[in-house]
Specification:
Layout: E1 3-7, H1 11-22, E2 28-33, E3 70-73, E4 77-81, E5 86-89, E6 94-96, E7 99-102, E8 106-108, H2 114-117, E9 122-123, H3 128-138, E10 145-148, H4 152-163, E11 168-172, H5 179-196, E12 200-203, E13 207-212, E14 218-223, E15 228-230, E16 233-236, E17 240-242, E18 254-255, E19 258-260, E20 266-268, E21 274-280, E22 285-288, E23 296-299, H6 302-316, E24 331-336, E25 339-345, E26 352-359, E27 364-371, E28 374-381, H7 387-395, E29 413-414, E30 429-432
Parallel strand pairs: 1-2, 1-7, 2-3, 7-21, 9-16, 10-11, 10-16, 11-12, 19-22
Antiparallel strand pairs: 4-5, 5-6, 8-17, 13-14, 14-15, 18-19, 20-21, 22-23, 23-30, 24-25, 25-28, 26-27, 26-29, 27-28
Helix pairs in contact: 1-6
Domain Reductase C-terminal: 332-402
InterPro entries: FAD-oxidoreductase/Apoptosis, FAD/NAD-bd_sf, FAD/NAD-binding_dom, FAD/NAD-linked_Rdtase_dimer_sf, Reductase_C
Domain FAD/NAD(P)-binding: 4-309
Length: 448
């Protein structure tokens, strides 16, 4: 083998490249990225950067070692010819590979009406350039910022804007913020937090249209309950779209849910046959996990991107007998409205929830989620130091509710997740046993 190509020059792509070199790969290495920037850290964009504590240019990812690679930045992958082993680029050129790693991640789900999305004042927040755009809008000192969607990104943006003194309205079609990710019980706590910090939170409503003035600037939003809201800025936080469109026609099992892979990160083709020269890692990958019934997991988690990239890199250059499975336990964190939120496992799979430490009313607690009689996940509000213990409960399939000090007599309650059959922008863990290329499924854009 002489050449490896990595499509996706962000966290997973960079860490995979570094790990290839660490394990002794000395062939040619090419990284392709659609952004002109070298790899940078995305989580701070909706937190420290938006608060002005860190500049966008200071979010560059630290390099573990020199990767000695050819960087093709600012040009997107446009197609994949697996027969010829060529990645086709948007500028018309091609890059040959012996083995390919797909690490193209996700992009923000856009506002579905193109003309409304083009209004001055309407934006998303995913990239470094998005952050700079939003900062320019906020520099105008808007009268009101509308956040469309109360998942983690929307809630973090709302928190930062309130801390900076802006009037904020959050419109969320679910019953509470974070309901898709953590369920309604925990979502009720998130709702109280937002309202206590001055957010005009409106749940159970959708933004039906955005209206501009004659100059093309956003001036108001129309909501499904018939109300009209004046706003100068609308941040669309409707979740993410996996970057797989460039793989159309490639014969890979790639679609809206990501690239389906085996536990060793090898991509499946549309017939369910595993490939041996195409791998996937990071937000774009879907892999089976024994802790979750071998259903496919799509994880939009920083730690998963690193761990999976290293497994993929190892397996790309290792014989069958030395290949490893990717068995990372999901884990993520968020900081909003003065509270640090951490979670392990797959909360969105939970049927019931029980508070095991602290109090929901005090916004300081730990809670465990149960699925079919076992602990499947946990979440902590300012209780992050305990998540390691809950991780061990999850990994040994401990019985639910867990027997912990102080939990005697505490009864689980329904976790109140929305119907999984309905579209949602909230979860950071998506579990599905369906093929992403199943043409019987019709995916339609939705509004919140």
């Amino acid at each position: 083998m002489t050449g490896i190509v990595i499509v996706g020059a962000s966290l997973a792509g960079l860490r995979a490249a570094e790990h290839l070199r660490e394990e002794g790969f000395d062939g040619s290495l090419t990284l392709i990225g659609d952004e002109p920037h070298e790899p940078y850290d995305r989580p701070p964009l909706s937190k420290q950067v938006l608060l002005g504590r860190v500049l966008p240019e200071d979010t560059a990812l630290p390099r573990r070692r020199e990767v000695d690679a050819e960087w093709r930045l600012g040009v997107a992958a446009a197609g994949l010819d697996r027969d010829r082993r060529r990645v086709q680029l948007a500028d018309g050129s091609e890059v040959a590979y012996d083995k390919l790693l797909i690490a193209t991640g996700v992009r923000s789900r856009p506002w579905p009406n193109d003309s409304e999305a083009a209004l001055d004042g309407v934006c998303v927040l995913r990239t470094s350039d998005d952050t700079r755009h939003l900062e320019r809008l906020l520099a105008r000192r808007p009268n009101r910022v509308l956040i469309i969607g109360a998942g983690f990104t929307g809630s973090e943006i709302a928190s930062a804007c309130r801390e900076r003194g802006f009037a904020v309205t959050v419109a969320e079609r679910g019953e509470t913020p974070l309901v898709g990710a953590l369920g309604g019980v925990v979502g009720d706590v998130a709702a109280r937090l937002q309202r206590e910090h001055g957010v005009d939170l409106r749940c159970g409503v959708m933004v039906t249209s955005l209206e501009g003035d004659p100059a093309g600037r956003l001036k108001r939003a129309h909501l499904s309950d018939g109300s009209v809201l004046d706003a100068d800025i609308a941040v669309v936080a409707l979740g993410a779209v996996r970057n797989t469109a460039w793989l159309d026609g490639s014969g890979l099992a790639a679609g809206p849910r990501g690239v389906a892979c085996d536990a060793g990160c090898r991509a499946f083709d549309v017939h369910g046959i595993v490939t041996d020269d195409v791998f996937a890692a990071g937000d774009v990958a879907r892999t089976p996990h024994p802790l979750f019934g071998y259903q496919f997991l799509s994880l939009e988690h920083w730690g998963n991107a690193v761990a999976q990239a290293e497994i993929a890199a190892h397996n790309m250059i290792s014989p069958d007998s030395r290949r490893l499975p990717h068995l990372w336990t999901p884990s993520f964190w968020s900081s909003q409205f003065g509270v640090n939120i951490k979670s392990v496992g797959a909360p969105s799979m939970g049927e019931e929830i029980v508070v095991t430490q602290g109090s929901l009313t005090d916004h300081s607690f730990a809670a465990a989620y149960g699925y079919q009689g076992r602990v499947i996940a946990a979440v902590g509000f300012d209780h992050g130091k305990w998540m390691g213990g809950y991780r061990r409960l999850i990994e040994r399939a401990a019985a639910f509710p867990p027997e912990l000090p102080g939990t005697r007599g505490v009864r689980p309650v329904p976790a109140r997740f929305p119907d999984p059959a309905l579209p949602s922008h909230g979860p950071t863990v998506t579990l599905t046993g369906h093929s992403p290329s199943d043409k019987r499924v019709v995916f339609t854009p939705s509004r919140a």
